[in-house]
Structure formats: C-alpha cells, structure tokens
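Schema walkthrough. Field components (list of strings):
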Amino acid sequence: MVELVPALLRQELNRLAEEGTRIDGREQWEARDVSLETDCLYNAEGSAKVVMGGTIVYAGVKFELRTPWPDRPTQGSLMCGAELRPVAGRKYEPGPPSPESIELGRVVDRGIRESGCIDMESLCIVPGEKVWGVMIDIHVLSDQGNIFDACGLAAIAALRTAVVPAERFDVGEDHTLQVNGTPIMASFTRVGGRFVLDANEHEELGGDERIHITLGDEGHLHSLQKGLKGVFTPAEFAEIFDVAQKRCVELRKMVAKTEGN
Amino acid sequence: MVELVPALLRQELNRLAEEGTRIDGREQWEARDVSLETDCLYNAEGSAKVVMGGTIVYAGVKFELRTPWPDRPTQGSLMCGAELRPVAGRKYEPGPPSPESIELGRVVDRGIRESGCIDMESLCIVPGEKVWGVMIDIHVLSDQGNIFDACGLAAIAALRTAVVPAERFDVGEDHTLQVNGTPIMASFTRVGGRFVLDANEHEELGGDERIHITLGDEGHLHSLQKGLKGVFTPAEFAEIFDVAQKRCVELRKMVAKTEGN
Amino acid sequence: MVELVPALLRQELNRLAEEGTRIDGREQWEARDVSLETDCLYNAEGSAKVVMGGTIVYAGVKFELRTPWPDRPTQGSLMCGAELRPVAGRKYEPGPPSPESIELGRVVDRGIRESGCIDMESLCIVPGEKVWGVMIDIHVLSDQGNIFDACGLAAIAALRTAVVPAERFDVGEDHTLQVNGTPIMASFTRVGGRFVLDANEHEELGGDERIHITLGDEGHLHSLQKGLKGVFTPAEFAEIFDVAQKRCVELRKMVAKTEGN
Amino acid sequence: MMGGYGDVKLLKDDGSRLDGRKVDEMRPVSIQAGVLPAADGSAMVTHGLNVAVAAVYGPMEAHPRKIQRQDRAVIDVRYNMAPFSTSDRIRPGFNRRSREISKVTAESLESVVLVERYPRSKIRVEIEILAAEAGTRCAGITAASVALADAGIPMRDMIVGVASGKIEDTVVLDLDKAEDNYGQADLPVGILPNTGEIAFLQMDGDLSPEEYELAMEYNFKAANEIHEIMVEALQRRYDGGEA
Amino acid sequence: MMGGYGDVKLLKDDGSRLDGRKVDEMRPVSIQAGVLPAADGSAMVTHGLNVAVAAVYGPMEAHPRKIQRQDRAVIDVRYNMAPFSTSDRIRPGFNRRSREISKVTAESLESVVLVERYPRSKIRVEIEILAAEAGTRCAGITAASVALADAGIPMRDMIVGVASGKIEDTVVLDLDKAEDNYGQADLPVGILPNTGEIAFLQMDGDLSPEEYELAMEYNFKAANEIHEIMVEALQRRYDGGEA
Amino acid sequence: MMGGYGDVKLLKDDGSRLDGRKVDEMRPVSIQAGVLPAADGSAMVTHGLNVAVAAVYGPMEAHPRKIQRQDRAVIDVRYNMAPFSTSDRIRPGFNRRSREISKVTAESLESVVLVERYPRSKIRVEIEILAAEAGTRCAGITAASVALADAGIPMRDMIVGVASGKIEDTVVLDLDKAEDNYGQADLPVGILPNTGEIAFLQMDGDLSPEEYELAMEYNFKAANEIHEIMVEALQRRYDGGEA
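Field assembly_structure (string):
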C-alpha cells in the first residue's frame, strides 16, 4: 500500500487551521451532531446506536453465568470488546483483530471499568459458585471519524439500559443492571498543527496524534490514551482537558435523557 | 493466480453437450464406476473407502465419551467433518480449513443428520452424565471430480458398519452402532449448459454451478445445496431430481451389499 | 527471499577446513567460551542464563497445579518449550511457532524427559487430584550459532536450581525440585565437509546438516536428532560421538559448579 | 432443524400459527437503502425481528493479485453475526456456519452481478446480522441485493432471499424462531424475481417431493412481495435522497 | 488498577512506602547498552525488579511491500512478556495487552526517530520483558530508546518511560507491584527529556485534575534522573566498548 | 518412550516377542506405487498395521516467491495423521509433533533428490497416515521415496525408513505399538540403501553406546529388506501399469 495521506490534504488542513476553521466549517472545539438511541436490538439485553456525523456504531450487552475466580469468589466480571470489521469502511480488512480494534476496545473498556460504575460485587449470585459475566460488544458499521467517542458513548448507554436476564437463567427475576456513574470519553486529534474536538474522516486522514480522555461524573480522569505518531506539551493537554470537561457533561446529559424516555 | 479455466475447455464441453455426449464418452445421466470397501482401517471404529472414477475418499468413525448438554441430558452427538488436504490434488493448498472443505463437510453432515438415521437418544449411556459423541472424519486422497458424492457415500457406509467401542471405555460390551436409514447424496454439475450426473475433474474445471441432493430411503429430501456461480430453473431441478432418485437407490443397494459381506 | 548463503562463504569454509582450522581460528572440536548463571530472574522458580560466544539464552521454570490424567493418577508433568522470537536475530520473523522453534523445543524436551531426570511420581501431591506441572520456557535473546546446546544447558541448569513454590499454592513448604541427573546436549554441524563442534553463526550459514546428541550422566544416549539437508556415515557418527562424551562431561561439571555456588 | 420435539405445538386449532400468521403469510418486512455513509452502497433489512445490514465497497482493485480474475470481478462476501445478535452471545472470530453462508451467498451474487464488466477487480459485500430470529441468511441476501443496487453495480436481476419450511407436517412460509427450532424442514432460496430462476438453494430436514413443490410455490409468492419492497426502498433512496 | 482492596495498607504511619521509599522516590534503575551481540543495537534496563531487554534491527528494507511508506521508515515494535516473567506463567502467543502496548510504543518511537531519513525501510524494535514487577511498559520504552541510540539510529530526542500513580489517596512516583495491584491509579508516560514533550500517555484508575498535575510533576522529575542514567550507559558503551 | 512400566512383559520366556517375532525380525511390509490418480506420483506403504500414503506434486513453480531458491528446488513435506488413524481421535489442525516430523523428513528427502536440477521450483510431498501402529514416520519416509520415484523425480538414492528400539533391556528391530508404549528406547533412521549413509536420525529413550551399535546393525539389515520391496513395487508399476 502506498502512502494514503495525500500531501495536498495536509496542506489544506494547515491552511484552514491558520484561518481558524475546519474542513467542514466547524470551529476548533465544535462537535458534529450526535444522536443516541437505546433498546434498539432484539436479543441484546442492553443496546445502543450512536450516530456522530457519518459515524454509526452499535453496542450490545449480553450476560452469562460464570464461576467466579477462586481469589475473588464474590465478584462478577465485565468485558468490553470492539470489532472493526470490514463493513466499517473501505480501509478495513478482514482478519484477526487488528491493533487498532484491540486499542479501541481496551480504551473503551478501561474508561468504563476504571470509573468503578459497575460494582463487581453486585454481580455475585452465589459466592464462590455463580456470578454474572457482563459483556459489551461494540460494532462499528460506518467510520467517518472519531469512532472512539461514538463507541464509548454507545457502550455506556447500552450498559446503563441493560436488563439482567435472571429469569432466562433461572436465578431470580429480571432487573435493571446497577450502574453507578456515566463515564464519557472525549477525543482530540491534531489537525493542521493544533488539536480539534471530534475529528471527521478527512481530518483523521490528514492529521496526527489523538488523545482520548475519559471522565467520570465528578470530572475525575479514569482513562487516558495517546495514539498515533506525534508529541504534545503539558500546556496543550491543559487546554484540551478543559474542553473535554464540557464535552463530557453534554454527552452525559444525552445519556440521562435517553434513559428518561 | 490467473484464471485457470481455459476458454478452450469450455468451448469443447459446449460442443460435446450439443452432440449429446461428454468428454469421457459418458451419457448425461451416466455415472463412473464406483467401488466401496468397508472395515479397511485399523484404529477406526468404522471405515470406508470409496473409489469413483479417479476420485478416492476414506471415511473413519471414532467415538468419545462426553457429558451431554444440560438442556438435552439424554442425547449424544454426531459430527461430520471433511478435510481437503493438499494430498487431494494439485490445486489444494495447506492452511486453515478452506470454504470449500467447510461446505463439503457441512453438506455431508446435514444429509446424514437431517435424515434422522442416528437417534441421538440411542447414544445415551447415563442420562445427564455420559453420552457417546460420534465423529465421522472424511479424508479426500485423490480428487478427480464429484468428491461430494464420494464423501457422502463413504461417510454413511463407515457409519453403518461402525462398532461402538464400549469395552475400551468401560461402559458395557461392544455393539454395532444403530443406524436407521441410508441417506445418499447425488450431485449434478452444469456442463456445456446442461446438468450432468457425477462430473469428472475436466467437467468441473470447465463447468458451472453444482446441485447436491441428499435423499432418504423413502425418497424424501433431507438436504439441498447449490454451490458455485450460476442459476437454474425449477424445471431443470425437476429433471435432475428424478435422476437423483434413481442414482440414490443404486448407491443405497451398494451400501447394503457391502454390509452383507 | 533470495538464497542467503553466499557461495563465497562456502568456498572460504571449505578452504579453512582443508587447512584444518575454522573461521574464528578454533580447532575442529574446540568450543567457544561458555558462561552459566542461575537464579537470575525474579518471578521464575528456577532460571538460568547461558552465554556461548555471542549466543545468549535464558531459561525459566514455572510450576502450576494440575489434575493428573485419569490413566496416570500419580504422575505430574514436564513441558519444555522454546521460543525463537524476532529478538534473537535479523533472520527471525514474527508469527506462529516456526518449524525451527518447534524442533528446538522438542529436542531439548526429549533430552531432559528421556533421561528420566524428573521422576513424574515425585510431582504428585494428592493422587488423582493434584500434581505439579513443571514448565521450562527457553528464550533465545541472541543467536550467534549453536542455540541448541545453549538452550539445553540453560534448561537443565534452570531445572536443577528450581524451587517448588508449594507455599504460594498452599500445598506445603517450598522445597528444591528433585532432579536425578544432568542430561547435556552436544551439537555438531557439517562445515567445509567435516563436522565441527559448537558452530558459530557464519559456520551455520555456510554449513550443512547438524547432529544433536544428548547424553546422560552414564554416557548413555537419551536423544538424537539430525537436522537440515545432508547425510552422514556411521563412521562420522562414531567420531563425533566420542567428542560429545567429553563435551558433555565438561558442561555437566559447569552445571554442578553453578549449583555449588 | 432439530426435529423430534413433538410436544411443542406450533399450529393452533384453527390452522393459524402461534403469532397469528396464516401458513402462506410472511413476517413484516421493511427495507431502507443507503444507511451507511462510509459505504459505496448499503441497505438495512428488517424481516420480522431479524435485522440485517449490508455494505458494498467497490468495484476496487483486487488484492492480493492471486484472487484476481482476468475476465471478471470477484465478489467477496462476509456474512457475520454480531456477538449480541443471538440469545447466547456468539464469540467473534472463525465460525464454520458463517463461512459456508458467506461462500454460497457470494456465489449467488456472482450469478446476477455483471461481473464481466469489471475484470481484475473486487466487489466487497459485508453482511452484518444485528439481530437474529430465524431467516438471517435470506435477510442478508436481500440486503446485499439492495446494497449492490444502491452502489450502482449493474445486475441482470435482483436476488430475493425467502424461505419456507415444514412444521407439524404442514408446509408454511417463512419460519420464525420457534418454528425453526422445533420444525421439520427449512428451505431457504434466493430467487430472481424477473426471470424466476434460482441463484441460492439450501435445505435441511425432511420434505417429500410434494412438500418441496408447495414450499417452493410459497417461496416464489413471497419473493414477489419482497421484491416490491426492495424496489420501493431504492426509489425512496433516489427520490428523497435518503441518508 | 484493581481498586477496592481498601484493607491493604500501602503507606506507613511516617508517610513512607512499604519498601521505605518516599512518595516522590523512584526504584533503583540501572541500564546497560549493547548487551546482545546479534542485534544492531540493544539495551537492558533493570528498574526495581523489572528486567526489560530491547533489540533493534535495521533500518532494513520493509517487507512485505504493503507496509512500506514512501516518505519514511516504519517502526515495527513487539513488546513481549516472557512466559516466566510473571508470578503466573504467561502462555506464549497472541495477547491483547501486548498488542496494545506494542502499538502505542511504536507510535511513540516514531515521534522521535528521524523516520523521514529512511524512506521505504523498516526498523524493528523488539522489547522482551524477562521479569515483571509493575512498570514494564515504561522500562521497555526506556530500553528501546537506548537500543535505538546504540544502533546509531538518529533521533530528535530520547523517550524516557516513567509512571506515577495514586495509593491511599496519595500521589506517589513509580508504583511497585503491590502498589499497582492495590492502588487507585497509574499514569505511565513517555517524556522527551530535552523538549519536555510527551510522546507516550496512558492512564487508568481515578485521578482528580489536581492529582494528575502532581503525578505529572513527579514524572518529569523522574524522567530527568533516568535520562542521566541512559546517557551514562551510552557513554560507557562507546568509551569502554561494552559487549 | 514412556519407560517405567516395568510390569508389562514384552518378551516371552523363549526370547521371542509378543507377536511371535524374533528380536531382529521386522513386521510384514507391502508397498504399492501409483495409487492416487490425481497425484504426479504416489505410493501406499503397509508396515505392520500402519498405513501410510504419499503423494508427490511437481516440480512446479515455487509460490510464494520468498520460498524460492535460485539454485535448487525446495521440498515441501507435510506429514499428517488422519483423525481416525489412532486409538483416540486426533483433532485436525496444528500439531507440534507433525510439524517437527515434516521438517526433518523434508530435510532428509532434500538430501537425496537432485534438487539442483530444478532451480526456483517446488516439489510437494504429502504424507498421510491412515492407520498408526508405531513407526509411522518411517513408513512415511519409505512411502515418500517410492512416490518420488513414481513421479519420475531424479534421486541419487532412495531413503528407507526403519527403526529399532529397546524393550526389557533387549535391543529389538521394528517396535510395534505395545513395544513402543512400554519400551525403553526407539531409534528411527532413514538409510540410503546403496551408499549406506544416513539421511534421517531421531532417537529417544535410553541406549548405551553398545546398544546403539546393535540397533543400528538391525536397522541396516531391515533397510535392505524393505529396499527390495520398494524396488519390486516400482517394477510392478512400470511393468503392469498399476493404477
């Protein structure tokens, strides 16, 4: 494969950055339209569909009965995985999980796990014998930029609306999964030399490194990740961190609103 | 790989079809010589060797003790798999199971399974604890056309002559596996524009789609499969279906005769 | 990949052989400097580092609790594996285990296993319930020739200094693993038409077949392996067998000395 | 077909089915074209509770070289069930059933796409099942046809995926999940609505020759109904500029 | 970060840590360059009880072709934990954690290596963890930097791998194994000592914005200390002709 | 060699073996050449109850390019045990034992085939074990030799696969299954019958130098016997036009 990033696109992105605008006319810290729908998939115990610009992502939650690990007899488990299958875009190829899909799944997983929003003890049914395993699977159907935020949002929304299928497994009555918090991810991409929020596919193609920040309800950091080639300064981080705080508050409200429906 | 099907072979096959004959002189619904041998492999609990023209196939049956699935405590299991290893022909390559070998195994499996010739309840030893798992493995040693029919015949012949090795597993006395029926597959390939029975390797190379029909003792359909590029009409199907009925009766007699020996 | 063995290197090695010398000035049956260090890795229950010329190899021993095989309720198990990861040299590539690494691991494994130095019965904790599984992992960090001997030496040295971590697994007190013997491997490579001991990387590149001989404390053979293209005569074998006896005595002393420290 | 579960009743005394359908009535079907911005063509088919999405990419250069055909395009189909699409989660990765369906679906589509117009190229068709309730391979074929049309790939006809089957010794159209689990036969086919030819055929279970005839009759009837919905979806897409 | 193990005490009454270190004190670090004769460049980093070895091969022709970049070298990093490097043996082979660390480490190194000097080529960096006691990815980054320098690969700065974290609501530098297992946050970063930029960043657990600031302050302090040890190792290598 | 099963008696009081063979007597061997119509050369070897089939394809162009050798053919051997060839079924797929045997068998055959006559090409040798009763690798080597000859591939000598071993402290020729399971050593070798050279050598268990000498003596004797059967099989093939 020859180098895919056309030098011309980079030039144009640099020019736009100097003019203080972006390729689709947005401002530096302006996000694209977002829509969130939950409970949209038969057979999933929790589900969400997120549309961010031209990016479309589904997340589904499934439960299984497990034997707990011997050293943690009262704890269930949580697992979050992302598939970047060839459906998502022309550049994706079939094959074993790519480093990109592994990183995506693990970053989303850490944001949720480390926020502590799932109390593993609450997943215990019979200590030492039976606990719930909760599995969030994320499926990217259309990648037009910033799949990290779309996946993070879909994952937590699916989780927060999940119903534990206790009846099907003969261990009590169905009940809503207990989720204590709404960790939200905000991602930034260096485009034309500066960071922007919610990059689209052209900005990612002609851009550089990304920073992914997951924040909890109190504005604490639960996960950070830098991806791709590039370096940043502490001052740059301080600036995007402020933007991330605002972005996360907005998206968290959207999740709350969906639940209210 | 450049296109392997020489246009010339197609032309010749078209010409022969117009003349009402085939590349090896057979008539449209005429099969090649078939030989069937059973009990031919040390260590297999049932075995068969089928030679159809230049195609040579072995099938072997093995048993194992299993714990039944919780929702079917009195049922054993049957599994049929086919390997298309590089030994079978110049075109076969090493590697993970090819789509061709998966299709082959699954089509043979469905024909046997769906005929109901194995009563899964008869494979139960101790309900909820111990059942037999029956595994038929098919091994194609030489592919000169129509391996589907050869594999189907070898599989059912090996199964019908299998001895359950109860003594070796310490669960009673060895006994013949109970098999209620002899499902047989008949396959047709479009060659020179019309379907023929039991295509050889040249006809497959210069031909189009295949139809695989598995029929039970009463002439009922138990499995159908269309493979490769091409379409057919209901009228065409009606014609080959009649041929399949006759072909299956013949091969079923051959199985019965082998067992009689 | 074009042929890597330059014809010129072969010519030079032939010339040197005729003069009775080797590319690094050694004599036919002269080995390079060897150093052996044990107990060098935190977290491994036994460990060894071997340096042979420019070849550097680590071995580490780990233990796990296992359920014994039903037909051998009082026997533990031993497993020895070698990884030839890309760190070891420019020619090594990432990917699933190569035939070279499989051969290496299995030849080292056989030498240790077949010498009987580990009594599998001594690994039993509770018959039919709990036995030790002993795993030796060998890691080649720098291949400059004769990794077989380096790996064999590292493996037995790590094994002979291993401490069974019974306390961590709550099955008694930590104790030294009982090892009855010190099997040692000596490897020979055909270079310039004759065999030499302990070939370096140039000799391997321009050489032919290898013979690996593992000898026990009494000078009995426990494992033989011929690798690579080439044939040898019984007379040639008789000659290298004598050299192997001496070489193994020397290296066995080195192991004993390390243990004494 | 599991068969043998004789104690599960699938037909009511009035001859109607558990969900109230008549024997020759199919589940509701709705189709939307152009649903995935990243794809060259796409469609979503909702068939009963099944949800199948198809994306088409190409024609593009065929890579690696050895899959190229000098005289035509290759069609590379992946049929995949999302982990959350079924009652028990499916582990991502290799799956014999998916591989077989992908193969025969690809061969069916190659039968209608004018592949000879694109020598040495590749057309990727990605079928993703988001929710499964019996009949996903048929919903996938239908979705793939619409997605190919949405991508502007020339075809000599569409393929409509439909299935009939047998429950309680009665031939019925379009098995749902219970009927599939406890029924006696399933006959999924891919029909060319304009020519009446068949491009996809599988069957398992037990059907007499007469039952086969009736099941096929139902299938052809349903294919016409679904074909209309496919055409409407494409018209909406081009008229209203959906997606 | 497992969190939740509130009953494990990690700080003594005098505010010092279980191994006696102060909150802003790192474990002992020693570095040796040129340790692997077969490699073009190599280094071994001992950081506390962690042992990380890095080997560099190249620049060499990039194979297969499709990984080549016309305008720069690609850096191919493999981070791998030896089976015996941890308390419970690790099975060799595919490992999601290793893949992720390899990816972000490679991207960090690409940020400092003058990759545009070697178009169409590949530089292989092999990081092998022989013993793990929390902090292996940082030790690996440090080792890789030294090994690249040992191989004579031009870089615009080194990268120093360091980490701070939080235990018992207190920010501390350089978590050891117990602190990592029972602590509340971990913030591993890769710092360019000359420019003060950051090329590697991960974090998990729970940190307030203020705690993040303090943890970063500790990290920058430690980066300078380790940088000196890296430089000394390279000087010893060139002066003394180590290895 | 499992060893240690001292309570299984393998030699009768008269010094003969359980199946009545003398210590230096091999099991019956029969060979047929040209058994597989699809192959360029083939052979079936029945050695005791072992059944080994070998197919040869080529010489053909070596693909992919990177396996090509400028000055010779590569020999690509796959030794495979059919799932039903052993008492406990073998799962198809990756198998360390098969990989090792394939590697050393390929290297042995490269030692006798005149590979320099076919630069840049590949010769595929497929060895399939249909029934296993100890000694399959030797039966496979013998079958491969005959198949190569049947394919008309020029060789400087054949290779005959034979094995001796030790049971109850006695060296015996050609271990059967019980003797292999409960014996003390196994020495499989590949002998060039005309030159007396050795192209294949493995051994495990416990042999004194003297026992090794005797085992090798038996092996050479057996190699001559089997070689005659190989030659007869090829003569029958060319005379009678078998297969």
